[in-house]
Amino acid sequence: MTDGLTWPVWVGLAACTGVLLAGTYALLAPRPARLPLERRRPGAADAASALTEATDAATSLIHSVLRHHGLTDRLEEALDRAGVRRRVQDVVLLVVTGMAVAGALGVLLSGVLLGLLLAALPPVLAKVWLGYLAGRRERAFADQLDDSLQLMASSLRAGHSLLQALAAVGAESEQPTSEEFGRIINETRVGRELARSLDDAGMRMKSEDFVWVTQAIAINREVGGNLADVLDGVSNTIRERNQIRRQVKALAAEGKLSALVLMALPFGIAGFLMFSNPSYMAKFTASLIGYGLLAAALVLLVVGGLWLRKTVQVKF
Question: What's the rounded Cα separation, in Å, for the pair 183 and 179?
Answer without folding.
Answer: 6
